[in-house]
């Protein structure tokens, strides 16, 4: 018989302590145990990036990209997790969410949480290490290019991302 394990995380600035089977993925943990359903599962093998969340390991200052559909939640025990639900405040949408809406970036919206988290991680990276403007397109492609959307041509996502970066001082030099 497989024993359950105590999981302690900080999800969207809230401490969470739950008991879970070791093979439970982070996506299933978020959906079934915590009730956060914004993180989407599409391919189930970590390729499409719809399930992207951010995780900060103990002792680290920056977040890393995690594909929640394939990551066992036990591998993240003790981590800070940021999901799409953690981007907005109770008063307003995040800059990323506002820009995606303004630019009509998505159609069905299923992939939008993964794109939003990818952009959030990109902005976090640029805040720590700004880049030259001429390298921006390449960096966006490296960070967002693997996200799969079956409804759009990606152009509006890229327009929204450029707008976010242009509106945020200090990200490019």
Automatic annotation (TrEMBL):
**Any one GO molecular function term:** 2 iron, 2 sulfur cluster binding
Q: Which Pfam families match?
A: Fer2, Fer2_2
* Highest taxon of source: Bacteria
Task: Tell me where in this chain the 2Fe-2S ferredoxin-type domain is found.
Answer: 5-87
SUPFAM superfamilies assigned: 2Fe-2S ferredoxin-like, CO dehydrogenase ISP C-domain like
Which Gene3D superfamilies does the entry link to?
3.10.20.30, [2Fe-2S]-binding domain
Q: What is this protein called?
A: (2Fe-2S)-binding protein
| Naturally occurring in which organism (per UniProt) | Sheuella amnicola
């Amino acid at each position: 018989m497989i024993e359950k394990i105590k999981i302690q995380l900080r999800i969207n600035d809230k401490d969470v302590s739950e008991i879970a089977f070791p093979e439970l993925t982070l996506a299933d943990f978020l959906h079934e145990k915590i009730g956060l359903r914004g993180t989407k599962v599409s391919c189930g093998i970590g390729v499409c990036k719809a399930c992207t969340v951010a995780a900060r390991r103990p002792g680290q200052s920056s977040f890393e990209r995690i594909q929640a559909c394939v990551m066992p939640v036990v591998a993240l025990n003790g981590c800070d997790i940021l999901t799409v639900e953690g981007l907005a405040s109770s008063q307003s949408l995040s800059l990323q969410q506002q820009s995606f809406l303004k630019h009509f970036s998505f159609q069905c919206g299923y992939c939008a949480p993964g794109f939003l988290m990818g952009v959030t991680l990109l902005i976090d990276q640029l805040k720590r290490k700004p880049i030259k403007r001429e390298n921006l397109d390449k960096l966006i492609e490296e960070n967002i290019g693997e996200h799969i959307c079956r409804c759009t041509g990606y152009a509006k996502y890229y327009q929204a991302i450029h707008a976010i970066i242009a509106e945020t001082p200090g990200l490019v030099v």
